[in-house]
Amino acid sequence: MALILSGRKFARVVKASLRERVAALQGPPPGLTVVMVGDDPASQVYVGAKEKACKRVGFNSTVLKLPVETTEAEILDLIDQLNADDSVHGVLVQLPLPDHISDNRVASAVLPEKDVDGFHPVNVGRLWRGEDGLFPCTPSGIVSLFHHHDISLTGKNALIVGRSNIVGKPMAALLLRENCTVTVAHSRTVDLKEQCREADILIAAVGIPEMIKKDWVKPGAVVVDVGMNRKSDGKLVGDVAYDEVLDVCSAITPVPGGVGPLTIAFLLENTFKARLNLKPPAGN
User: Fold this and answer.
1) Tens of pLDDT along 113-124?
2) Domain 27-111 falls under CATH 3.40.50.10860
3) Among 41, 105, 63, 32, residue whose Cα is nearest residue 272
4) Does residue 139 contact residue 167 with C-beta atoms inside 8 Å?
């Protein structure tokens, strides 16, 4: 029977460790400020969950809610203020932003050492150069989940279905660090099914409900489902047809309760790391 890779259970382990490390800190606790523009319902849920998680591990947490008509210049000015505030160790601007605000300009405005999303070009460069830095939370959580369950990665064929800057691309970089042979595919890949069937590690992050079927999966593969899609009946499903694939894979993440909780846990990890003001090792 397939091993169920519960992100929810592992996130509790990560948060318990963080509580201990925060309690042992000399000086102020980690401080995270989240900026939310507009009233997107999903964003409100995510931001609320992040705020609760911060408080549970002993962080200082601030949420700045701004009206949808806030200008890009006003957002950038606010980020400058947060960059200069020594009590703020992590700055997160909740996505999506309104159309009149550039995601890239906002990401580039946050100081790299406070960029707990891992989106700043400096942190992206450090990731691909093999240096230390703050890296995107979801891929970082997935790699740690593999380690937690002693899943061997070295030499494995890993396929990532999805090429976003948030998951697909950084996931590829992190798996290369783990000595995987990495392929990045997407919804327009020719013979995607056959590509999937060659993968020892299959990570679905394409945003198409239950696209990955049983006959797409190599027997014994490890399957990670990053998708979170709501069907017409209100049911939450991933990018993988979970009930089918469960019969053929060796391990799989559920939806919900799989990757989602890891994202928040590793946002907290990044904030703690930012509080310690870790720098890339000399010589890297």
Assistant:
1) 999 999 999 999
2) yes
3) 32
4) yes
**Cα–Cα dist 29/57, whole Å:** 10
Q: Backbone phi, then psi, for 91, in 5-degree steps?
A: -120, 125
CATH of range 137-261; options 3.40.50.720, 2.30.30.50, 3.20.20.210, 3.30.70.1350: 3.40.50.720
The pLDDT of 129-142, averaged and rounded, is: 97
| Angle ∠(14,44,224) on CA atoms, nearest 5 | 45
Q: Give the span between the Cα atoms of 43 and 96, in whole angstroms.
A: 8
Active-site annotation, residues: 50, 94, 117
Which of 221, 214, 133 has its CA nearest to residue 177?
Answer: 133
Cis peptide before 261 (omega within 30 of 0): no
Residues with Cβ < 8 Å from 9, sequence gap 6 or more? none
| Cβ atoms 97, 70 nearer than 8 A | no
